[in-house]
Amino acid sequence: MAAWRLAEPLLGLWPTDRPTVLPFHHGWLHCGNERILRKLIERFEPRVIVELGAWLGLCTAVLLEASEARGAAVVAVDRWDGEWLLEHQCDQYTRDVEALQMLRSGLNLHETFLANLWEHRTRLFPLRADALEGLAMLRAANAPVDLIYIDADHSTEAVLQHILASQEHFPNAVLVGDDWCWASVRAAVEEHVQQSSGRLRLHSHPAENWWWLEVVVAVPEAELSERPRRGAVEFVPGGCEGHGHGEHSAAHHEPPGRVARAPKRKQSSSMEHARTQSSPT
């Protein structure tokens, strides 16, 4: 299968030099989430994977590792703005004291993400934008998105908006997300499936904390090709050559976060318990 790359130099998503901040690995990734992501990537062989809500790149590293053999591009969409999160989503971080302290300390989330995943810039495209803006930009860029991992704002309204936008721009893409134990996430996903008129089938696992939507009735490729596509920046078929960072092949580097992943899973399990205990039933 052909690899895909983005004409990234036109966007300037990566700086010329590695950020001077030290790599710092923190995040939430249940082992069940990792299993389902690997299974879905193996089954559907996505050309482009989009992650909505990337934090410091713990799950991003898994997406890169799981899709490495297929040469898939991974686009991480996130604001990476601690002040904005404290103002608009602070209540969603109160369950994790460490994360809240990180936000209040002024940690540069964007530069830390870049430092954590610097070796993967041949296939990883960190798009600093709101989730809805990022999806629209990728649609305009003619990106062949086949899988979208939704893990940004967990409010019902936001999750529903992210699902609707994903379906609008990439109707045949597989949608998958975590935090099924959050009542707000369940409400959004179930509402969308109920309104899909049988086009989607919901799969979920409460114990492993994931959900994904299977497309039962796909939009014909001919119909998709007729949709208007425009944009100065486009995804083009090919490998990493000409990307500007070709000397750093992801195939020769251990994915960052592998060593730190085990303790973070342990932390994630305690997070899930807190979420379950505090979420309305």
Structure, explained:
With 281 residues, the chain is α/β, with parallel strands linked by helices. Helices cover 39% and strands 16% of the residues. Strands 4-3-2-5-6-8-7 form a seven-stranded mixed sheet, with helices on both faces. Strands 1-9 form a two-stranded antiparallel sheet. It is globular. Residues 238-281 have low confidence and may be disordered.
Descriptive terms for the model:
alpha/beta, 281 residues, 10 helices, globular, seven-stranded mixed beta sheet, 39% helix, 9 strands, disordered C terminus, single chain, two-stranded antiparallel ribbon
Quick description:
The chain is of the alpha/beta class and 281 residues long. The chain has helices spanning 31-44, 58-66, 82-88, 97-105, 109-116, 131-140, 156-169, 183-194, 221-225, 258-278, and strands at 4-6, 48-52, 73-78, 124-128, 145-150, 174-178, 200-205, 210-215, 235-237.
